[in-house]
Amino acid sequence: MGMPTLSDITKPVAGEMKEFESYFNRTLQTDVPFFHIILNYILRRKGKQMRPMLVFLTAKLNGKINELSYIAATHIELLHTATLVHDDVVDEAVERRGLPSINAIWNSKIAVLVGDYLLAQGLLISVEKKSYGMLEIVSTAVKEIIKGELVQLQKTRKLNIREEDYFRIIKMKTATLIGACTACGASSVTDDSAVIASMREFGETIGIAFQIKDDLLDYSSNGLTGKKEGNDIKEKKITLPLIHALREAGPVERRRVIRVIRKKKKGRKEITWVIDFVKRHGGLEYAETKMSEYADLAMRKLDSYPDSETKTALIQFIQYSTSRKK
Questions:
Q1: How many CA atoms lie less than 13 Å away from 159 in the CB half-sphere?
Q2: Averaged pLDDT of the chain
Q3: If we measure between CA atoms, which residue out of 261, 273, 274, 283 comes closest to residue 158?
Q4: Among residues 72, 96, 297, 326, which one has the fewest Cβ atoms lying within 10 Å of its Cβ?
Q5: What is d(CA 168, CA 211) in angstroms, rounded to the nearest whole number?
Q6: DSSP 3-state assignment of 78?
């Protein structure tokens, strides 16, 4: 039995995911022809759609999927797409998922406006259906993601990220959105605030493990990730493997590494040297251990649920999050 794929994990909600696609497409219709072109382009380059899938799986785990579940999945997907469009502007990225970014094809001004439109559309969907609990979950997530970005920008400038800063940043930036998926999924089928809170924690814990895996992938160039190894180092992103290695190293070596990271233009040789430094000081093993701790915590959140196809799919999603190659 190999590692589960995303299509294996989607099986219990495959019908709902298909239905969701047309539901989502309908929310992106507009009477402005130019805008229509851009929104269609966004629809064409959709990613793995893990977030809507998580909404449906947690809804099914806790009750019966209904219209509110579709609204939750659409709201989350609109918010997620908006943050990606805005991210590309902030990072001045020219590519997203192997295709040119919105700001590269048109310009940053248009990209910001499109991102704003997607956010507003997400809020409106929830208001129309009077799902204010969901609106609160998602709006809180947006606030946290933005705060996380700002904290990261400030810390990156000073290069003084400690382990607790790292966890605070990834909780805000990545885990919050996954937590919003699982909380929204649960809140679409139950009013039990303890269940919704537990599901939010479940999602956040997966989100942290997922992000640590992302940071580990930066140290293994396998040609699948679409980015060269050492990309984080190039962009002065200080992640868990590096934090641990810096903590373990002597002062002279530590200063040398920080000096290399601080440089605006780094050669491949310097990046390879930093990667070797991290490997030599056990940074990868340390991050792997932490990732497994969070994955186990997430698994334990499912202990109280009876066995089902949906529970199995969520267990597989945790396994997928920590064993994927890209």
A1: 15
A2: 88
A3: 261
A4: 326
A5: 12
A6: helix
pLDDT tens for 150-197 read 888 888 777 778 999 999 999 999 999 999 999 999 999 999 999 999
Average pLDDT of the residues in 92-97: 76
Nearest to 287 by CA among 251, 242, 221, 318: 242
Category of 236 on φ-ψ map: left (φ > 0), alpha (ψ -120 to 50) or beta: left
The predicted model gives 106-128 an average pLDDT of 87
**What architecture (CATH level 2) is domain 13-206?**
Orthogonal Bundle (1.10)
In one letter, which amino acid is 130?
K
- Around 256, how many Cα atoms within 13 Å sit in the side-chain half-sphere? 12
- How many Å apart are CA 98 and CA 104, to the nearest integer? 12
DSSP assignment of 49-67 equals -HHHHHHHHHHHHHS---H
Residue of 259, 237, 231 lying closest to 169 (CA atoms): 237
pLDDT at 274 over 70: yes
CB 102 within 8 A of CB 108: no
Rg value, the chain, Cα: 20
So where are the chain's domains?
13-206, 218-300
What pTM value is reported for the model? 0.90
> Looking at the predicted structure, is the pLDDT value of residue 2 above 70?
no
Beta bridge partners of 96: 99
Give the CB-side neighbour count of residue 3, counting CA atoms within 13 A. 11
Asked if pLDDT for residue 226 goes beyond 90, the answer is no
Cβ–Cβ under 8 Å, residues 254 and 283? no
- 47 φ/ψ sector (left φ>0, alpha ψ -120 to 50, else beta): beta
Confidence of residue 208 (pLDDT cuts 50, 70, 90): very high
DSSP 173: I
Q: Supply 181's token pair.
A: 């998926």
Contact 237, 214 (CB under 8 A): no
Q: How many residues does the chain have?
A: 326
